[in-house]
């Protein structure tokens, strides 16, 4: 296989330096580039898979065996500029590879990366990242050239969904909707253990749909940073829950505090939690009406509230367009580790099929 890669690189180099007209040369180069990438993708051994979660404050990395066992872990602070971030990611991969014993050309690891944004297919550059120093950068190709291998990059909510669908709370489902209820509200769709990213790479971004079936006192809803009003995120994200509680009670409390107090007999907090359950059920019902997933997995800080998944699941039937609703709503299994695990799962193992 490596001979095939070497042959292709050699042929590619010959074309680049050939006396062809510039347009013809570019066409040849594009074709060669596709062939080389395909060969490299096939050549990299999938026995060790590295997953990296590039967060706003920390970068976490894990090396998994083919069976999903953790071979090595690393964590470091996220640099606040692009070049240092590239260096940190490269260093992290090499350290994980060393610790996992995957250093030689045959056994070196695959690399998957979860980012707080997405890569624009037309430009190859990052958009929608709250780590703003990544925006507009060619993160994937820059990292690929530094690591001399193909790297798969995916939105962090998609990595969460993929992790839970692969060997977490949604492992028994064909179609899994992974939900992030945290600082923001996001989501990812996984079908047969593969992310559905969509034409505009926004599949699963339900947080910026409007709250469905709004009551009189919910219309037209709080202003959202996206420019609309009444987005689901403005109601059931952590900051959204805290703001709603403050509007109705005058109390300034965090969402975690409110959700916990609700289970300890605090009536005002219980009323807010009841609204969270009702609004989440309404919002997820529209997902069920369109996608009809087998399992909905809740992640993010808000999802850690005891019994929240069960309470939302019990309320779904009131809104879904079906007499019988058997959709499972479950809390995550891997929690904070889902980001790195899902990034590692972006590559197949000898134990899984490759059909991307
Ligand atoms: Zn919005």
Model description:
It is a single chain. The protein folds into 2 domains: 44-161, Nucleotidyltransferase, domain 5; 169-332, Nucleotidyltransferase, domain 5. The chain is globular, with a radius of gyration of 22 Å. Helices cover 40% and strands 18% of the residues. The protein contains 11 helices and 12 strands. The two termini are 20 Å apart. The strands form 3 sheets. The chain has a 5-stranded mixed sheet with strand order 3-2-1-4-7. It has a 5-stranded mixed sheet with strand order 10-9-8-11-12. The protein is α/β, with parallel strands linked by helices and 356 residues long. The structure holds zinc ion (ZN). Zinc ion binds at residues 208, 224, 226, 228, 231, 233.
Topology readout:
Layout: H1 2-16, H2 22-43, E1 48-54, E2 58-65, E3 70-77, H3 82-100, E4 110-115, E5 118-119, E6 126-127, H4 139-147, E7 151-155, H5 156-167, E8 175-181, E9 185-191, E10 194-196, H6 232-236, H7 238-249, H8 255-262, H9 267-291, E11 295-299, H10 308-316, E12 328-331, H11 338-344
Parallel strand pairs: 1-4, 4-7, 8-11, 11-12
Antiparallel strand pairs: 1-2, 2-3, 5-6, 8-9, 9-10
Helix pairs in contact: 1-2, 3-4, 5-11, 7-9, 8-9, 9-10
The structure holds zinc ion.
What is the CATH superfamily label of the largest domain? ATPase, nucleotide binding domain
- The spatial strand order of the largest sheet comes to 3-2-1-4-7
- What is the CATH architecture annotation of the largest domain? 2-Layer Sandwich
Count of all domains: 2
Q: Number of helical runs?
A: 11
Radius of gyration computed on alpha carbons: 22 Å
Shape: globular
Unreliably modeled segments = 1-22, 29-45
Ligands, ions, cofactors: zinc ion
* Structural class determined from secondary elements: alpha/beta
- C-alpha end-to-end distance: 20 Å
Sketch the topology as an H/E string, one letter per element: HHEEEHEEEHEHEEEHHHHEHEH
